[in-house]
């Protein structure tokens, strides 16, 4: 009796669109790097192939498509859980943001500009954020501390510069997404970060907050 109430006129196009709609859910917005785009395309291609094969092989025809649709929902849930774990890992920002020899803010800024000229926006974002943090260290707004993460730097700097706290956290999230999550960003994101870095170079800290 339950099966009689389940719509069975699900065709290939309808099933494909259902899968596309599920994978377009905003929960996936945090996972925008290119690898995820390729994953979505691969899943949709496999959906089409599975539906083509199931139409002639599954007993009951359309009823088999209903079963396949349920399987697709389970796959979507699994992807959703995986994406959530990746998002949490990226937000944790557990690794130090500085690597190798100690360089000045001017050195990191120059590295960012070279990366932009070469078309490597991800590297430009990484170097510009490092320039921002190193500049705050050079000015005494932040203490020089090895092993500091991007999130820690944003929180510490936000205490001394409360008016810029939200922007500093946003800059740290951008760094984490690019550096740890492989997120692809455009020149507008880099320019926003560059403007923030230049602004922080002259911002006056609240001594009492420190």
Automatic annotation (TrEMBL):
Domain Protein-glutamine gamma-glutamyltransferase-like C-terminal residue range list: 128-191
Pfam families referenced in this protein's UniProt entry, alphabetically: DUF4129
Transmembrane segment boundaries: 63-81
Origin superkingdom: Bacteria
Keywords in alphabetical order: Membrane, Transmembrane, Transmembrane helix
The protein's name: Protein-glutamine gamma-glutamyltransferase-like C-terminal domain-containing protein
Lineage: Bacteria, Bacillati, Actinomycetota, Actinomycetes, Pseudonocardiales
């Amino acid at each position: 009796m339950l099966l009689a109430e389940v719509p069975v006129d699900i065709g290939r196009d309808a099933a494909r669109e259902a899968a596309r709609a599920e994978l377009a859910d905003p929960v996936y917005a945090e996972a925008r790097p290119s690898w995820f785009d390729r994953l979505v395309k691969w899943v949709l291609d496999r959906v089409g192939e599975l539906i083509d094969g199931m139409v002639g092989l599954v007993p009951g025809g359309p009823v088999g498509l209903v079963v396949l649709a349920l399987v697709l929902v389970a796959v979507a849930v699994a992807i959703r859980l995986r994406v959530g774990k990746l998002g949490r890992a990226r937000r944790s920002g557990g690794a130090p943001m500085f690597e190798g020899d100690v360089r000045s803010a001017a050195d990191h800024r120059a590295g960012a500009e070279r990366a932009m000229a070469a078309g490597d926006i991800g590297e430009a974002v990484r170097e510009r954020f490092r320039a921002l943090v190193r500049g705050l260290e050079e000015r005494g707004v932040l203490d020089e501390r090895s092993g500091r993460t991007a999130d820690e730097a944003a929180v510490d700097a936000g205490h001394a510069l409360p008016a810029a706290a939200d922007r500093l956290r946003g800059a740290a999230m951008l760094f984490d997404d690019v550096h740890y999550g492989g997120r692809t960003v455009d020149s507008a994101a880099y320019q926003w970060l560059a403007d923030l870095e230049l602004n922080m170079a002259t911002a006056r800290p609240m001594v009492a907050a420190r």
